[in-house]
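Q: Two folds, back to back.
A: First:
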Amino acid sequence: MAKVQNGFPEHFLWGGATAANQLEGAYDQGGKGLSTADMIAYVPKEKRQGDHAMEISTERISGILAGEVNDRFPKREGVDFYHRYKEDIALFAEMGFKVFRMSINWSRIFPNGDDAEPNEQGLQFYDQVFDELNKYGIEPLVTLSHYETPLGLTQKYNGWASREVIQHYVKYAETVFNRYKNKVKYWLTFNEINVMVFSPYTGGGILSDRLENKLQTVYQALHHQFVASALVTKLGHEIIPGSQIGCMLARMESYPHTCNPADVRKSQQENQMNLFFTDVHARGKYPRYMDRYFAENNIEISREPGDDEILAAHTVDFISFSYYMTLTVSAGPEGEATAGNLLGGIKNPYLQASDWGWQIDPVGLRITLNHLYDRYQKPLFIVENGLGAYDQVEADGSVHDQYRIDYLRQHIAEMKEAIKDGVELLGYTSWGPIDLVSMSTSEMSKRYGFIYVDLDDEGAGTLNRSKKDSFEWYKKVIASNGEIL
C-alpha cells in the first residue's frame, strides 16, 4: 500500500519572512546608498489613489533628491532592525524559528549598484546578522533583490529596462555568495518577480516617464531578470556546493466566476499569465502560450545569443511563492469588484475579506499547492502568507489578535492537507513575523506580526517590541511541528 505523509515532514522549515527595505532602517548609515524603496513616500488614506499607486518619474526623483519634497519616507527608517537585530532574532528564536527569510539590501553592498568595490561595512552587517541566526540554529533564507534596486542603477540605466544591469546584479550576487557561502544555503533571486507587470518601478526600478511602450519595456526588463536569475543560479551552485536556489512568485490563483466556458477560459488565461514566470524559471524556456500574447500586443523580446541556452541549463531548485488570496474573474461585466494584492477581481460570495479587502481563502492555498506541484514536480516553499490587520493595544500592553491566529490556523491546516495530497513542501515563512512598514502603502497600521512594534503611521512611537497572543500560539505550532493548531 502506498505511504501517505499524514503530517509535516520531520525537518520542515517553520519561520517568518521580511524584506530589508521594510525592516532595517538606517538608510544613510554604514555606507549604504539610496534605493528605489527609499523614494516611496507615505500617503495618508484620504489622499491615496488606489492601493498600489507606486509609479515614480525622473522629475519626482530629482525633486526628492533636491529637498523640494516634504513627504515622509517610512521605508528609510523601517522598524530599526539594523540596530535591534539581536533583540528581534532572540524573539524569533524564542518562537522556535527554524528559518528566517530576509533580504540583503543591494545598495548596502554596492551603494550605487555599479561600484567597483563592495561596501565592507554593509558586508559586515549581514555577517553579524547571519552569525546571530546561526547562534540560535536558525537557517537564513535570503532574497537577493526584494523591491530595492539601487537608485544609481535607476538613474543611470532606467533599472532593469537596460541589459547593462544584468552584469551588476551578477557581480553583486557573486560577492555575497563568496562572502556568505558558509552561512547561507537557501537563496531566492527576485521577490515576486511578476509584480514588475503591475508596478515597473517596484519590480524593476523603471521610471514612469521612461516607459514609451509599457508592455514592451516591462517584458524586456523581465527577460533581463530571467537571464540574470539563471546566471546567478549557476553561480550559486558553483560557489556554494549543496546550495538551494529558488524563484519567487506572487501567486494569484484565479477562479472562474461561473461555469460559463467563457469564464473558465478567462480564468485559464489569468493563471497562465501568472505562471508564465515560474514556467521560465522551472522549465527553462518561454511557454508557447506567450507567443500569441506577445504577437497580439506587439511585444518583441530582444535576446542575445546564448540567452535561451542559459535559461535552459540553469533552472531553479525549488519554487517559492507568496499567497494571500485568490481572484475570481469573469469574461463579462458581471460581479462586484474587490480589492486585492496588486490585482483586483470580482467579489467571491463564498469568502470573507480582511480589513484591506483581501479575500481570505485557506482552501485556495491547498489548491495552489496542488496546481504548482502538479505542473512542476519541484519542491515548493511558501515564503509569504499572513493577515494584515488593525491591532488594538490594551491598557496592559497586550494585543489579542485571535483573528490572526484563526487565519493562520486555517491556512496551515490546508498546507497539511496538501502534503497529504502528495505535495513536497519545504517550509513556511509567514509574512511579517514582526510588524514592519507596508510594501504597498508605507503605513504601519497594516500589521502582520506576532511581535508588536510601537510605531504609528506618522512615524511616532518608541519602537519597543512586545508579544501578541499569536506569538505564543505560533510557538506551539512550531514546537509540535504543526500538530497543535
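A: Second:
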Amino acid sequence: MTDSAFLIVGATQKKNGMWAALRACSRGVPFFVVIGIFMFFTLLIYSDRLKWDSAEEKLEQLANTVIEQGQSIDNLQRTLTDRINTFSHNSPTIFAITPTFTRPVQKAELTRLAQTFLHIPNFYWIVIEDSISKTELVKNFLTESGLVYKHLNVVTPSDFKLRKNDPNWKKPRGVAQRNEALKWLRQNFNSTHNGVVYFADDDNTYSLKLFKEMAKIKVVGVWPVGLVGGLMVERPICDPATMKVTGFNAAWKSERKFPLDMAGFAISLRVVLEKKDAWFSFESKNGYQETDILEQMVTRDQLEPLADCCTKVYVWHTRTEPPTLTDENRLNKKGKKSNVNIEV
C-alpha cells in the first residue's frame, strides 16, 4: 500500500486526521474530485454492511486514483508550458495551404496532417477542395479538427484534370486551389500582419522542427526535402561562411532556376501580398510550378537557407500508397458498400 493510501486508512481511526489526509492526497486535484472521494470514504466507514478489508482495498484504489489524477494534471501543465516555451510569442502566423481532392485515403491524409498541425501555435490552415462544392467529409473533419482554418473550394478545369490512369506528373496539380488560397490571403490580410505562407501538400510528412525554422523567415526560407526527385534528399547547397545558397543537389531537371520541391520553401506573407500578380500557372512545364512561382516573387540571392544550413531533413515526400479495393469494387457492382453510413 502506498504512503498516501495509509494516510486515508489512518483517517478512519482519527476523525481529526481525516481532512489532513485528504488535503495531503488531493493537491492539484479538482475540488469536486476531493468531495466525491470524501463522500465515498464516509459511506465506507459508517456502513456496517461492508467488511473492513473490502473498505481498505477500495480506499487504497481511491488514494491511487487521487495520486494519478494529480500526476496527470502536473503532466498537462508541463506539456502546456513546454509548448508555449517552444515558440516565441512574436512568432509569425503560419498559413499552410493544402489542396485536397476526394479519394479513399483523403481523410487519412488530412488526419495525419492535422495531428501535427495541432502542436503548432499561431497556425492557420487553408484547405481547398478540388470540387464544385464543399464536401460534407471535409466540412465535418475541419469542424472537429480543433484547428483554426479556412475551408475553400474551386474545381480544376476539365482540360487540366488527370484521368484515372494518368501518371501524377502528366498535368500540373493543385494550380487552381493554390491560387484560390493566394487570392483569399490577399483579400483578407495586409502587410502589417506577421506571417509565413507554406504550401503544405497532404501527401507529405512534417516534423514540428520545420515550423520552428519558418519563424525565422524574412523573405523566403528554403530547406531539404527527403525522398523526392529520385534522391534520398533533395536540397539547396549552403555556404556556412556566408549563409547563402550557392547551388542545389537536385538530380531531376536540375537546370531549373529553383530546383525545389513544393515542400522545400516558404514565403513571407509580406512578399506574397506585395507580389500580387504572382500566380501558379497551368502553362508551367512539368516540374516547373515551384520555379515559376518563385521567379515571380524573389531572386536566388534572397533565399534564406534554414534547417542547420540545409543539412537537416524535417519534411518527407511520403505519398500514401493507394489502397487495393478489389472486394469493395465487387460490392459496388452489386449496389452495396462496406461503409454504409460510416465515414472513412
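Q: And?
A: Residues 1-22, 48-52, 80-88 have pLDDT under 50 and may be disordered.
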